[in-house]
Design goal:
Oligomer: single chain
Distance between the termini: 60 Å
Number of helices: 5
Radius of gyration: 17 Å
Structural class: alpha+beta
Order of helices and strands: HHEEEHEEHH
CATH class: Alpha Beta
Number of domains: 1
Strand content: 15-25%
CATH topology: HIT family, subunit A
CATH superfamily: HIT-like
Amino acid sequence: MTSPKRVLWAPWRMAYVTRRSAPGCFFCRAGEAHDAPDLRAQLVLAQQPAIVMLNRFPYASGHLMVAPRRHAATLTELGSEELHVLADVVQRTAARLEEAFHPQGMNIGINLGAAAGAGAADHLHWHLVPRWVGDTNFMPLLADVRVIPEHLEALYERLRPRFATPAV
């Protein structure tokens, strides 16, 4: 006889499971609608040519995304100056995450195309994920649940002042 399965209640996952995406690109909507940070849009920085957003469904606390404001799916669609500025924003975003979280490491990367794991395959974006030794555990393997210790609103309030300084 097998032992009964244990239930892990994760009601916050319902927003992810049942979400209906608005038509169009959420990066473009955020970049077009906002010229300043906005909590509801999870936008911590809006400048030309980049935006920095909280990941609504993060892998770990502090998971941010940097994207060009204009719609571009691949690196080759960016001009060299635009790519240079975006790389600078990625670098400065990493520095702000280090200041705010003091991580032991950081994953920074781009998933180009759906086959590479991009959730928003039609709009290029970098993921910046602060990491700590032991920050992942058995939860994702056994329960398909990520344990994120900080609410997105608290994360926004922690990070927003660090992006308020000019020339991010």
